[in-house]
């Protein structure tokens, strides 16, 4: 798989996860500290899974969650830059 295919595969899963959580309030209304805490929690889960040789599916799931939280934080910061 080349880089573009990998990015398409991964970003598609990020979007699927976001779509599955549309019932939650938009990240614009979540404090950055809370988003960061969630990102850190996902990093801890990922670290544990990797250390114990956990499920590959679970590792991918955690990576997607981390990427989504990072995107949410970046998007909130971007909005302030565009003012």
- The proportion of strand residues reads under 5%
Mean pLDDT: 95
Q: How would the global form be characterised? A: globular
The helix fraction, in percent, is: over 70%
Which sheet architecture does the biggest sheet show? none
Q: Care to count the β-strands?
A: 0
Low-confidence stretches: none
Radius of gyration: 14 Å
Individual helix count: 3
Which secondary-structure class do the elements indicate? mainly alpha
Distance, first to last CA: 39 Å
Notable traits:
83 residues, globular
Layout of helices and strands:
Elements: H1 3-20, H2 32-51, H3 56-81
Helix pairs in contact: 1-3, 2-3
Description:
With 83 residues, the protein is an all-alpha fold. The chain has a domain of 53 residues. It contains three helices and no strands. Helix 1 packs across helix 3 and helix 2 packs antiparallel against helix 3. The protein is globular, with a radius of gyration of 14 Å. It starts with a helix and ends with a helix.
């Amino acid at each position: 798989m080349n880089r573009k295919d990998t990015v398409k595969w991964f970003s598609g899963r990020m979007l699927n996860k976001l779509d599955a959580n549309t019932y939650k309030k938009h990240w614009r209304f979540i404090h950055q500290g809370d988003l960061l805490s969630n990102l850190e929690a996902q990093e801890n889960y990922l670290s544990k899974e990797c250390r114990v040789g956990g499920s590959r599916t679970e590792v991918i799931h955690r990576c997607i969650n981390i990427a989504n939280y990072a995107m949410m934080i970046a998007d909130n910061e971007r909005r302030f830059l565009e003012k």
